[in-house]
Design goal:
Four copies of one chain form a homotetramer. Chain A contains nine helices and no strands. Chain A has 198 residues and is mainly alpha-helical. In chain A, α1 crosses α2, α1 packs across α6 and α8 runs antiparallel to α9. Chains A and B meet through α5, α6, α7, α8 and α9 of A and α5, α6, α7, α8 and α9 of B. The structure holds a DNA duplex (31 and 31 nucleotides).
Chain lengths: 198, 198, 198, 198
DNA sequence: GAGTAACCGAGACGGTACGTCCTGTCTTGGA
DNA sequence: TCCAAGACAGGACGTACCGTCTCGGTTACTC
């Protein structure tokens, strides 16, 4: 406790802000996490908040980012296909839940307000990318993957459809649907050679 | 068209609004298409606008929707794979251009303001869905597609990645990337039998 | 009933409008008597309403005017002073009650919207003026009044203070206050006997 | 005044608002002094205006109040009756001029929107009351007044008739009429000598 | 008794002001 | 020296009401 004051004040301020923002996001989604509300709850002034982040979306992205990473641990089923399918299932479940709504609001906010986009990428996509890269490495090691496809492409093809559905709501995000999408993505849409695919 | 003055007033008002909105979207994107600006340019009062649409995003979606449909005619290359790949290429090009930015803003606005979502689905997704359904039907007729995969799933897997990239900007939307994504989606990510993929 | 249709339609429409307006004024004061509300409740279209009256305040003045006349019958106490004082008391009581608020709103509306002023004068002041003129005539017949003072002046001096208080609310409109005001005013207005006045 | 920039910002904002409002009132009366117009001319945002005043009428009352006080200095003719009659004459002249119209609009607005009433009382009536109280005190000191009549009653009886005429327009506000009214009222209010009144 | 003209209900519309909200900057005073 | 507290400009929001207008159907006169 004695060395708590040695933390630069800015660190304590950032923590307070992120903590308060998390609470507000949980309580009322992104609309509830207005800068005024964050300032009031955290006891950190608006000026200070804007000294650390360029816009509201950036704060929210940083506050919410880890939550998602924690909520979606990497699976290890023994096969690359199993791992990837399970990961799609987990991400779909996350998107389909309450947090998914907040995630969508955040993504939307970072479109509206481009200053937040780098934060969104850093605190959401980077983490996700690392997970997929690891699974993809395992798959490569096992020779399960098409050598011509990169991890980035895989991420897009596997999770893009989920985000599409999350944002537009044109189709549900159930577990069954997640499996359908991951199967299609993993196997391919066209009827080349099948049999091993579900 | 001689009877234009006999159009019910509501029709004329809607036309004015949609036309003005299109212009504003072209000039400054969604932020420029505020309800006040639409009202001022169209000569239609705000109250009337809110009588016809629930929110700004709905107006913009309707105004911008057809533009996209017109900009992306259905291809007919002779093969289902070719048609689908070409369609992905065209949609990617659309997203990558100026219109893509507006499209992203619109999608984001419909997340923020759910009242607009049905309009977005009607004026963007419905059109897209019809196109894909037709291509998919051709493909089924030719026996090129995996019978177990529906057109809806195909749409998600083919275009979800593009939307993912459009919104987050984590990867470019070039033609080459579009081909990579469509190949991966159409063939599948896993290494069954490869080589015939473009 | 058979000859009801012989009434010009306009007469029925006016009656419906005035009746509906009275109800609305009773329920929520002048703000509740919007033209839309009057139209809806009376079944008479707004266009027709505006054919008969120049503005909302005019309708309300006509609708509310008789109410006040009915509520304040002329007193007859045997002396001019007694009659006038009693009349001030009655008007004060009217102003102090619920109707007083509506009266004030109406007067205010006719200031804001001068088209209504003639209606206000016709349906409120004319009636009042007639009453005062009659009392004043009685007083003259009895030789109680200062011959140099006209009935108009008397009306202003007796009721002006009440209206002043009603509108600004700077002092109450109780019966005792009414007597104080009328005493002060009557001592000046009545010529003959001075001394018995408080 | 060198420290003008050090004035708390709120003071500068209030000054700007009141100044702009005065101008607008002069140019087009109360209807011209919409909150939007005040905001635009003063450079003070609407939100700030609503932080300092509860409604438009309150702003206008404060802006216009002093003007009236300045325009009507207290007379000193040597006799209480003379002072009071002169004061009635001056107030009548004020009401009869352009400012009278604005005054009437303001009073009406404070009836319509009760949130403004305290401001009206503070910035119009309080000043008036102080003036009358002083004149009344002089009169009492000279023994000219009826001891049973308070200054408040005097104010109502003297100025109520003017306000009545101002608002309803049922009679003119000329100097001659003002004298007629003040004579009638003062004969009642002043105790001592009767008969020499005009 | 059909034709015709006036009239009216219903309500959409332009216009205007409203009062609220939130963002991101700027100022002040205290620690 | 740094920060909380919060005032501020700017600008969009969605609502409310007014008074005008357009439409289509009904009514009440005319022939």
């Amino acid at each position: 406790m004695a060395e708590e004051p040695t933390h630069p004040r800015s660190v304590r301020a950032k923590d307070s802000v992120l903590c308060a923002t998390r609470e507000l996001l949980d309580e009322g989604g992104l609309p509830a996490a207005s800068v005024d509300a964050i300032s009031a709850r955290s006891g950190v002034s608006k000026a200070t908040i804007y000294k650390h982040w360029p816009c509201r979306a950036a704060v929210a992205a940083e506050a919410f980012g880890r939550r998602m990473a924690d909520a979606i641990p990497l699976p290890d089923t023994g096969s690359a296909r199993g791992d990837l399918a399970e990961q799609v299932r987990r991400v779909s479940a996350f998107y389909g839940g309450d947090s998914g709504k907040v995630f969508a609001q955040l993504l939307a906010a970072c479109v509206t307000d481009p200053a937040g986009a780098p934060y969104f990428r850093q605190f959401f996509l980077a983490t996700r990318w690392e997970g997929i890269a690891e699974l993809w490495q395992r798959a490569q090691d096992r020779g399960e993957v098409d050598a011509g496809v990169g991890a980035g492409t895989a991420m897009d093809v596997l999770f893009g459809p989920l985000i599409f559905r999350l944002l537009t709501g044109h189709a549900p995000l159930t577990e069954a649907e997640a499996d359908t999408l991951s199967s299609a993505a993993l196997d391919g849409l066209l009827s080349s050679v099948r049999g091993e695919s579900s």
